[in-house]
Amino acid sequence: TFPFNQHKLVLNSFKTALTDDIFHRTCYILLECDRGGSSMCLDWREICDGRIDCLNGGVDEIQCFNLEINECNENEYRCHNGLCIPKIFLEMNFHEAQCLDRSDYFAVPICERFYFNFNLFECQEYICRPDKGKFSCGNGQCVEDYAQCKNNRHLSLAQSVSVQGNLSHECWISMVCLTKIMDKIENISCDEFIQSSEIIEQLKSCKFPLQFPVIPVLYGHVTFLYHPKDIDNIDVTLSLKPDYICYDEQLCDFLTPTFHNGTLTCRTGDQMGLIMNAELTTWKSIIDSIKPYFNGCITQHYHIIDSRNSSLYHCKNSSKYISKYRIF
User: Fold this and answer.
1) In a domain, 314, yes or no
2) Are residues 69 and 82 in the same domain?
3) Judgement on whether residues 76 and 133 belong to the same structural domain of the protein
4) Residue 28 CB contacts under 8 Å (≥ 6 apart), including other chains
5) Which domain does 257 fall in, by range?
6) Residue 283 φ/ψ, nearest 5 degrees
7) pLDDT per residue over 117-172, tens digit each?
8) Distance between CA 160 and CA 217 in Å, rounded?
9) Number of domains in the chain
10) Furthest-apart CA pair in the chain: how many Å?
11) In a domain, 312, yes or no
12) Among 221, 279, 229, 262, which Cα is nearest to 245's?
């Protein structure tokens, strides 16, 4: 006879429910969101999260600056994201946060300890803090860009930025595998493509300088431009580093561009943390290297900002204005 472990059976069923179908989850349908032709839809937690997800004018972040300048009443507590909750909630013995961004709860939340294994409703009702720049897994969990979600939504993100666009099939395959943005493409392991020794020849079919991915990799405006000088000597065990990091200069007016390509304003990779001899083996390691340079960028083009507004603080060496309540 085999021992029957009811707890393990229930736990496994929860895990299965969390990871079964990553591409068919709840979508927010009240905004028409263009994610660059991918099948990934907009999750409600991605609205006003401090990062542009919709490429059609950043509709998911429009008017969100109003939260930054929002003032709460005396009997209210101001959450980090600008929303208000009654102060009396802070005096009550809740075991979880009442702010959507959890900024009113200072203990280690029960959700962080248990929601990875149990699909708890109360854990799903939270959003990522806008200032952290993290990716929403669509279940209340927040992770660094391209890090692993327990429900595997990060795979949707990788697939969404790996769309072929106007690239030739050979060029597209080589870029996906050499940048290591995905482990598998068209149900074939990238290791197989690389070991076939044809991957470098396929890369030569690309027309350089080449933007890849064809959509932004960060914040709705940061893109990568590739123009490799010595293709035959590329180390296929490392992630192919972009030669230029391009961005919206108006959103990052503290970053002086040193290279222009058409309408793109860019800086060289080594100016953005991608040192030539750095051995970066994953796509995420490249993202992690360049992301800090854009922490001071604003999300949207501000129409009018009154610098005398007493509720705002202008961050040093940055384009950002933030609520004065966020500097304490």
Assistant:
1) no
2) yes
3) yes
4) 41, 42, 43, 44, 46, 47
5) 165-294
6) -60, -40
7) 445 556 777 888 887 888 888 887 889 999 988 888 888 888 888 888 889 999 99
8) 10
9) 2
10) 76
11) no
12) 221
